[in-house]
Amino acid sequence: MSELILDVRGLNSGYGRVPVLHGISFGVASGENVGLIGPNGHGKSTLFRTLSGLLRAWSGTIAFRGEDITNHPPAEIVERGLIHVPQGNTLFPDLTVQENLWLGAFAKGPRAQRLRTVERVFALFPRLAERRGQRCRTLSGGERQMVAIGCGLMGLPKLLILDEPTLGLSPKLKTELRDAIAAIIASGVQTIIVEQDPEFLHTLATRFLLVSEGTVHAEISGEGGLEHKRIVDMYFGHS
After folding, report:
1. Where does 16-96 show beta strands of DSSP type E?
2. pLDDT digits (tens, 9 = 90+) for 35-88
C-alpha cells in the first residue's frame, strides 16, 4: 500500500454540543486525488475545518505526512503544506488581487518564493494577471474563486483542499476552472475536492468518497478507472 499523505482516524467534531462528525476515518495515499461527494449539511465542510485547525477535534487523530497535526494551530498546519480553500468568498474585498495573493504566502518558505509563485498563478489564471491591481470587491464570482485558489497555491501546498470551488459559477467558468485544477494536479499538487456535481470531478479524482451523516458511507477506488455511472449511482443512492 502506498504511503499515506493524510491519515484520519476516528475523528469526532461539531459545534457547541452538537456533533457533526461521527468517527470519520479515511486516508489519502501519496499521488492520489480524492473527490468528496454527498448531501449538504452532512459534515464535509466541518471535516475540512477540523483538518485545517479552524475547528477543534473532540477525539480521533489527524496525521499529515507522518506527523500528528490534530488540533495544531491553523498557521502551523498551513506551513506544513496542508492548505484549505474554504467555500464562499473569504478574500479581503478592499485589497487588490495581488495584495490578496501576497497574503497567501505569509509563511517563511512560501514568502521567499512568492515572486516566482505569483507568476505561476497568473499563468494558470491569465485574467487575474490582467486584474492584478484591481480591488477584489469589483471582481466577478468566478474571478474571486480564481483568486481564492491562487491564494492557496501561494502557500506552496503539498495537499490542497477545495470546498465546492464551482459554487454558483456558469458552465463555461466551471469548465475553465476544471482545466485549471487539472493543471494544478499535473504540476504535482495533490487535492481533495468537494463538489456537488460528480461530472465535474470525473476527470480530476482518482478515488471518490461519499460522506453522509458525518462519516464515510461508501467509496469508489480508481483501480481500473473511475466509471461515471458508478459515481452517479453512489451519489444518488442507486445500487
Report:
1. 18-29, 34-37, 59-64, 67-68, 82-85
2. 998 888 889 999 999 999 999 999 999 999 999 999 999 999 999 999 999 987
The SS3 call for residue 183 is helix
Residue 142: which H helix or E strand, with range? helix 141-154
C-alpha cell at 198: 460528480
Note whether 104 and 150 are within 8 A (CB).
yes
Could you tell me the three cell numbers for 91?
Answer: 478574500
Give this prediction's pTM: 0.91
150/228 Cα distance (integer angstroms): 29
Residue 214 backbone class (left: φ over 0; alpha: ψ -120 to 50; beta: rest)? left
pLDDT score of 61: 98
Q: Computed over its alpha carbons, how large is the radius of gyration of the chain?
A: 17
CATH of 1-75+198-239 given 3.40.50.10210, 3.40.50.300, 2.40.10.270, 3.30.70.2730:
3.40.50.300
Q: Which of 28, 25, 55 lies closest to 211, judged by CA?
A: 25
φ, ψ for residue 58 (rounded to 5)?
-75, -35
